[in-house]
Amino acid sequence: MDTCWQCGTHPGESLFCKLCNALQRPTPDYYRFFGLPKRLSLDPAELQRRFYEMSRILHPDRFLRRAPTEQRYSLEASSILNDGYRVLRDPVSRAEYILKEAGFDIGEQRSKNVPPELLEEVFELNMALEELRHGDDSVRARLEEARRQFLGMRGEIDAQLQRLFEKYDATQDKSVLVEIRDLLNRRTYIRNLITEVDKELGL
Amino acid sequence: MESTFQIDFGQAKRRRVVGIDLGTTNSLVAYMDVSSPKVIPGADGGRLVPSVVSISANGEIAVGESARELLLTQPGRTVYSVKRLMGRGIADVQEELKLFPFRIAEGSESVIRLIVGDRIFTPPEISALILRQLKKNAEDHLGEQVTQAVITVPAYFNDAQRQATKDAGRIAGLEVLRLVNEPTAAALAYGLDKRKEGVVAVYDLGGGTFDISILKLHEGIFEVLATNGDTHLGGDDIDNLLLQIALEDVASEWGVDISGDHEAVQRLRRAVIRAKEELSFVPFTQIEVEYKGRHYQRRIDRELFDRLITPIVDRTLGPCRDAMLDAGVKPEDIDEVVLVGGSTRIPLVRSAVEKLFRAKPHTELNPDEVVALGAAVQAAILSGEVEDKLLLDVTPLSLGIETMGGVVSKLIHRNSTIPASAAETFTTAVDGQRNVLIHVVQGERELAKDCRSLARFDLKDIEPLPAGMARIEVRFLIDANGILSVTARDLRTGKEQSVDVKPSYGLTDEQVEAMILESYELAEADFKERQVREARVEADAILAAVDKARQNDAWFELSGEERAAIDEAVNKLLLAYHSDDHLLIRAHIDALNQATMKLAETMMNTAVRSALKGTKI
């Protein structure tokens, strides 16, 4: 472990040196930074409470009259705080973060392949979209129905994700992460479909 | 100050930081008085300094009201609305050039070079002249040197526009401690945090820019949820619209096109601005101009005015809806609406805002002053005087890099809380490749060519390796001012990688340095003036003290010679007083101090004796 950059003593896990109170180089690990256990389910209210509390202490506004090293660390710490809050408060990006940490490849590419069980729906959808682009407004109702269907699927996936989150937190079983990864890819695919339909329907 | 008759309280006081609203039409400076922010008036008592700069043939510089007067007679030497040109290149301002009498020099692709008389100025230099005036006003008012400031910018300003504003501060001799977004500053000034929790919309329609920000308040934290706007929309557009109509009228009535006659156009511009402002308070008025024996008059009522400006007001509503969408709030979630900027005095603007947000807007504070007041509050936050408030602002535009096929890969999304960062790993495409070029852009469009180019970075001196083996991590960091910095690291060796930054718009560091040097010339004249002023203040103090001492018992304990020496020193100081030589004044202050040494001692002893006796002297 590093020692305090200012007084050379052992700073421990805290943001500030316990001896000289100097701000330390922040950890880039979001969970450690927020002082939260590495779990996929987390309490959004608690995360928000910590975010505000730490913002008050770490924001660069508070370090303008301190040493340049502390100013630099405060800028770094604030960006980790803001980036981390953004990633952790959204269940999907939070899961992606954990997957990445666990060495999974979560590139966009995987989610571009049509999930086999959706082949038929996607084929029909593309036809309808094509017709709409050619000025056939009669497919609107069909598209709206498809949209509702996809929204429903997304809702199901989210519920399923929540269950898998809890399962992983309880077991720390890596095979659960594989399931989560596959589900996230499916979710991204469906989200993209919804966005496309929204765009064509002018929603 | 070291006068014998004064008790030196030392330098316990914190360095003062002022707040500056550098506006398109007017600029203001404010500071935090004991507990509330106050606008600092200029020597003429005016609280608004018109953002107008005039440079005479012999190099004399006028700023503010006096420059605004010169707009009529010296239009070719006078610059206004320069904020519209900050951080822009010539290709960005074609629309502006049709309506403003700016003359642009060659080589204005990445920084506009304005021809003013026979000299050339960049927008940051013109802005710096306005800032110097505000700095001087603050120094005169506060009686102390001012070197640090918070400056406000439109929330929707991009990286280059922010950098240009910071450069202007540096050229003016100000350390810009923070750039604050104008709507956020306004929210601070309103002290809306008293309500502890709530959602606030700030609608800011100024002279040249429009901003909308949606904020969430939480126990003193002002968290911006989303911001949107248009850096090319404001009261100027209304002026130009009315001006166009008046010019056409005049052309048909007088049978001459006066649009090339700068003085005539400026007179007409003034007349339409007056009419616009009056229509906020009366149902109808006249646009009226006398020029070279000819007369133009046209009645305009509010109904017609409203109809004319409806398209402009409507242009503000789209960004408002987008901001609510990004913030994830609906109109009924908004607890308070704050109006900022002179153009929000227009009744049509007020009713449009009220209708959109379904809330009666706050107008208690002067919309021209509220941003400067908020900047002063932020200045007090930075100096540590205010501890219970904190701004968490966002970046208004997404940041991305150009990838294959000119497509943008977004790294930091718009409305991310700042400071924010993102890292991206780059590799080489061919064996032995030594450098990688990266193009950074800002904006929401899919293709890099439709976004704003920020800079090109050259990652140099990469270790020659087979293609795809090098791994360079580039970190993009947007600081609390909304300004980007880039660092790079070789992931294989852990070594910092050199990054050669070529900003697409704006001044290089070397150019800013050169401008700072140039401005020293000006600064020296100012500095000398200030030193003389300070010496006189000091002289006033000691002369007053000596006068008062003449009533003291101690005076009569002095010998006749000692009294004569003091009288002589007083006379010499009075003679030096009106010279322009601060050293001379100071020398005579010192002499008077010497001559009164014994007097001071005696007085001190008398005071101690009286104190011991418990009687007053």
Please characterize this protein's 3D structure.
- The complex is a heterodimer of chains A (203) and B (617).
- Chain A starts with 29 loop residues before the first helix and ends with a helix.
- In chain A, helix 4 packs across helix 7 and helix 6 runs antiparallel to helix 7.
- Chain A contains seven helices and no strands.
- Chain A has 203 residues and is mostly helical.
- Chain A is elongated, with a radius of gyration of 23 Å.
- Chain B has 617 residues and is α+β, with helices and mostly antiparallel strands.
- Chain B has 15 helices and 27 strands.
- In chain B, the strands form seven sheets. In chain B, strands 1, 2, 3, 4, 10 and 11 form a six-stranded mixed beta sheet that branches.
- In chain B, helix 3 packs across helix 4 and helix 6 crosses helix 7.
- The two termini of chain B are 25 Å apart.
- At the A-B interface, helix 2 and helix 3 of A face helix 10, strand 18 and strand 21 of B.
What's the layout of helices and strands?
The complex is a heterodimer of chains A (203) and B (617).
Chain A: H1 30-34, H2 44-58, H3 68-89, H4 91-101, H5 119-133, H6 140-171, H7 174-201
Helix pairs in contact in A: 2-3, 3-4, 4-7, 5-6, 6-7
Chain B: E1 17-22, E2 26-32, E3 37-39, E4 49-50, E5 52-55, E6 61-63, H1 65-73, E7 78-80, H2 94-99, E8 114-116, E9 119-121, H3 123-142, E10 148-153, H4 159-171, E11 175-181, H5 182-189, E12 197-205, E13 210-218, E14 221-230, H6 235-254, H7 262-278, E15 284-291, E16 294-301, H8 302-327, E17 336-340, H9 347-357, H10 370-383, E18 390-392, E19 399-402, E20 408-412, E21 420-426, E22 436-442, E23 452-459, E24 472-478, E25 484-490, E26 496-497, E27 499-503, H11 509-549, H12 553-557, H13 560-577, H14 582-595, H15 597-613
Parallel strand pairs in B: 1-10, 10-11, 12-17, 14-18
Antiparallel strand pairs in B: 1-2, 2-3, 2-4, 5-6, 5-7, 8-9, 12-13, 13-14, 15-16, 19-20, 19-22, 21-24, 22-23, 23-27, 24-25, 25-26
